[in-house]
Amino acid sequence: MDPKTPRTDEDVLDGVGPRLRALRRDRGITLADIAATTGVSESTLSRLESGQRRPTLELLLSLARIYEVPLDDLVGAPRTGDPRIHLKPIKRFGMTFVPLSRRPGGAHAFKMITPARPKPLDPTPQTHEGFERLYVLSGRLRLVIGERDLALPPGEAAEFDTSLPHWLGSADGGAVELLILFGLQGVRAHVRTSGPAATG
After folding, report:
1. What are phi and psi of 67, to 5 degrees?
2. Binning pLDDT at 50, 70 and 90, where does residue 62 land?
3. Is the dihedral of CA 43, 48, 54, 55 positive or negative?
4. Alpha helices in the chain (DSSP H)
5. Rounded to an integer, what distance in angstroms lies between the CA atom of residue 186 and that of residue 195?
6. Which residues partner with 117 through β-bridges?
7. What residues have CB less than 8 Å from 122, skipping those under 6 apart?
8. Which helix (H) or strand (E) holds 114?
9. For a pLDDT cut of 70, what percent of the chain falls above it?
């Protein structure tokens, strides 16, 4: 379609299903998970993703809350000229993850903030598929990878294979801010895995 040609309602609705499928797979969520949360049957959700069923506003609002995205993202609404990006922090295990990338699929960028603590946490290494890159913005990061135990000051960067046991935390109990780039498996491990307060 010519980008200058206005989209019809049919064009907008046709794009909803693929976006929903991409968001669900991106977050590692099954149709059964969504059905249990929304009360909508798996078959209805499947038809919605495949384009065989048109979405209702009520259902779109519910799915937007579950996926933590603006409703405009589900329908592919164009931006109205406001240059601001409204980031929605994700809080997990006492830490804050601020998503810096918006597109489903591929690598994801996050700002990770570890608050100051009276006493540094003990490492609890984890493993998952993927590769991770990070850059220390402030504070001193403790990075444990396999047998290596490193302290990274602001301005230092690291990259590693996340199939190795690894852990990120504060080296001295102070607050730490990082920029992190990782793929889908990394997103799931960092913001969805249940477990101790450490991240990996």
Report:
1. -85, -5
2. confident
3. positive
4. 9-26, 31-38, 42-50, 57-67, 71-75, 184-191
5. 15
6. none
7. 198
8. strand 108-114
9. 72
Taking the CA of residue 89 as centre, how many other CA atoms within 13 Å lie in the half-sphere pointing to its CB? 10
pLDDT tens for each residue of 28-40: 788 888 888 888 8
Q: Using CA atoms, how far apart are residues 176 and 63, in angstroms rounded to an integer? A: 33
Q: Which helix (H) or strand (E) holds 166?
A: strand 166-170
Tokens of 56: 């209702």
Report which of 90, 60, 53 is spatially closest to residue 76, judged by C-alpha positions: 60
CB 14 within 8 A of CB 51: yes
Half-sphere exposure of 156 (CA within 13 A, CB side): 12
The runs of H, that is alpha helices, within 39-107 are 42-50, 57-67, 71-75
Predicted TM-score (pTM) of this structure = 0.51
Rounded CA separation 71/61 (Å): 7
Residues 112 and 178 sit within 8 Å (Cβ to Cβ): yes
